Structure formats: C-alpha cells, structure tokens
Amino acid sequence: xxxxxxxxxxxxxxxxxxxxxxxxxxxxxxxxxxxxxxxxxxxxxxxxxxxxxxxxxxxxxxxxxxxxxxxxxxxxxxxxxxxxxxxxxxxxxxxxxxxxxxxxxxxxxxxxxxxxxxxxxxxxxxxxxxxxxxxxxxxxxxxxxxxxxxxxxxxxxxxxxxxxxxxxxxxxxxxxxxxxxxxxxxxxxxxxxxxxxxxxxxxxxxxxxxxxxxxxxxxxxxxxxxxxxxxxxxxxxxxxxxxxxxxxxxxxxxxxxxxxxxxxxxxxxxxxxxxx
Length: 276
Prior knowledge:
The chain is 45% helix and 23% strand. By secondary structure, it is of the alpha/beta class. Helix 3 (51-69) runs antiparallel to helix 5 (88-120). The radius of gyration is 19 Å and the shape is globular. Mean pLDDT is 80; it is low at 1-7 and 9-36.
C-alpha cells in the first residue's frame, strides 16, 4: 500500500465524521471534495506539468475509486461516529455522492488538459493542476507561450444553463422546461476566493507564475469555465456583459476585480492572443 492510499483512507475516515456533523452544508462539503483530490494526489509537494499531470490524474482517480470500493472502512467510520440526527443510509449516500463528485472533478481536469495539449502542444505551454494556496485550491493554472497567465476554475451542474445577474451579483441556474431560477451560491463564492488565491500567488512570488521578477509581475487572468452539459445562458445575459476576449466572446464579471465566465467549447479561442 503506497503513501497516497494511506492518506486517502485517513482522509475518508475524517471526512466521514465531518459529513455527519455538517449534514447538508454544501459549501463545507465542497471543501471536502477539494481536499479529497489533494489527499489522493501522488505528488502533493511539487507540481508536474502538462502530460505528467495526466498520469497524476489517473493515479488520483484510481485511488479515489479504490477508497470508494473499501466500503468496510467507510461504513465503519460512519457507524462508529454517527450523529443521532442523521440516518446511516443518509450519511452513506451523502459520502458516496461526494466521492462520485470528486471523480467527476478529476475527469473535468483530464478532459480539459487533453484538449489544451491537443490544441497547443507542449511548446511553451505550461499546465499545472490543483494549485494549493492559503485560500484553497485553484483547479488549473495555464501559462501560455507568450507568458500570459490564466487561473481557471472548472465547474458543472448537470444540464443547467448558467446566468450571471449583474444587479444581484449572483450566479443562477436555469433548467430547460422548468420555471424560475435557482441561486448557484457555491460558484458565486468562487469569485472572491479566486481573487484571493491569485493575489496570494503573486504575494508569495510563486514559481508557478514565473522564475523571474518580470514574469511574476504579469497579471493573472481569472475565469470560471463551464464543462460537460452545463452551458452559458446566452439568451438571457445582458448583452453589455458579453465582451470580446481572445478570439471569442465571454461574460465579463466586474465586482471590483474581473473574472470571466465561458463554456469549455470556447476555451481554446479564449486563450488565444487578442486579435489585433
């Protein structure tokens, strides 16, 4: 059994306790999902790039699946630490759901990295996953050949359409065939978190940004990328919120700092240099 497997098992036992106590606190559970990937990362103290990250992601997925199959360990942790307010079936179902979502996150990263490497190749491109900061984890950091920096958070929510409400400063979900909108609070929170994370990288002069002072002074472009069946609600967005960036049009979110919202289908065009 390797160290990564042990870390995963310890993590799952601890997270079982937290899941019981938190119940349906989705914002805290999302933190658990982020930490699950981190616990199962085979090289937590250094960051491989490009194709080496794909190997890490495969290892991470195998470890998470292996832990999901270890139901005896997981069930034991739940049953021995169970809160009287949460049923066994509910706790187990919640825990298994989080593991499934962690695997989905790995798949999102894998698909995105394969797309970028296929489109841009290895020449000058630097892709780094799961960047740890004082304020949590950045999904994917992209340094282009021309030294532009991008901090990307990959998100999906079933087959929903995503709308940014400029007046309320909130993300909303709209499902085809259903009336009304639902607040997507976890992604709204990402805006502030991602701003803190990128500021932190520059403050600590992270080598991920660059090896020289000039490279580290380069701005970091922040973006939330919608993946899978989740799409941008292009029909209901304020036309003034959509701007040209790279070779495409995206939603610009300006709340004292700027973050962009786009679909994964537009990611390659988004990363291309601006048309002059």
